[in-house]
Amino acid sequence: MKISAHFKCIGLFVLILLTALNILWTFYLIETESRSRYNNKPTTHHRIAPQLAALEEHNEGITGPLNDTVFGKNSQHKFRLAFDNISFETGRWDNQRIYKMYDFALVGDKFVKTSLENIVCLATQSSVERLYSLTQVAYQWKGPISTAVFIAGDEEFLIFQYFVTYLRLCFTFIRDNVTFHIAVPNKKKPIHRYIPNLLKSFDCKYPEQTLRRLLKIRNPDTLRWRLKNEYPQNHLRNLARKGCQNKYVFLTDIDIIPSSNMVSQLNNFLPSVKCSYRCAYVIPTFEIDNRAKFPASKPELMRLYRKGLARPFHEKVFIYNQYATNFSLWLTNSSNEIERAHISHVVTNFEFLYEPFYVAFDDVPAHDERFIGYGFTRNSQVYEMYIAGYTFFVLSPIFTCHWGLQQKKARPVWREQQNNINRKRFEIFKNEILARYRRKRS
Q1: What is this structure's pTM?
Q2: Which of 18, 132, 147, 440 has its Cβ near the most Cβ atoms within 10 Å?
Q3: Across 24-177, where does the E strand assignment appear?
């Protein structure tokens, strides 16, 4: 009996030890990822810095430290904190009453005008800590952008409020073109706070470092809450998409950077395209080595590809994510290629788990909001499009990029758990979709 009790104690000790190690490993992964994004050195993710330098001479925004320019005695800039008039007592619930949505929490100064001038709107979603990418997205896009942001409580709202104020002061293409929508968890309703002089130390030349400094405001309780609770990607995608005012929507994630001149390319292409029935236009996405310069054209992208500094998105991490795009054909169809946007080829080898970034009419199926967290969020929506009869056309020479050549690495336990839960939800979703469209597409 004593021996049995002894082994039970050892077994319990080992279980507790493994659980503790699992928790520590999860926090280590999060901290490592955070440090890689926000280390003290100028990061290669912010490749827009040289472009912004060239832009300064005709940028009406501020190009240096905010202290003297905005708060000095002779300042001509009118300063107002972003979102200072929003009331969190209202808002609309999602269908499950888990999140509250605040549509058009802040509208870009020229968002209505630029929406009327263009046929397509970029819709994107982000957490607070990834908002630094918006600078390069907005600079490259130069058209209407509808951005949905997830805010978990007071600290994140404070960070969001001050960082968006900073972005709008520094960059006219954000102040003019970007409209923000907010989603907050049911029990994490923010309150307004003000920290005097917080903006004075910020410099317009360093958006990513500025956000990193602001993120230090978050306390460990907030980080632990984020660890335990799912990120509502599909809620945000629907929120951003419905914030667009245009006939066509290009739905992306915040870290997907459009190629140069894409808006004007699509403005010329989309009105002339002939679609017989339910069409979506895929924009190929590549990973770019952090050492490289952002490619200004498809020939430059191909040079990076040949040097091993660019490759198809998720090729090493999860190949089925973009495999049906057929990058080999896209890269082959480059000799004597016309410069204006056109159809390179049709997706003929659709596979389940395919999740391209695409442009389409704003009548495509919504993203199912039962999928919360990671796993089956985008591909479930694309799967419904496929079953509904959509044809996917791959466009060229336009493209999008994601910084960093991604490698397979151990996923935190919480992420794998979310993926497993969503896998079970997908089986229900799949049966519903097949019944809804009354056929199984071969």
Answers
A1: 0.85
A2: 147
A3: 92-93, 99-106, 120-127, 145-150
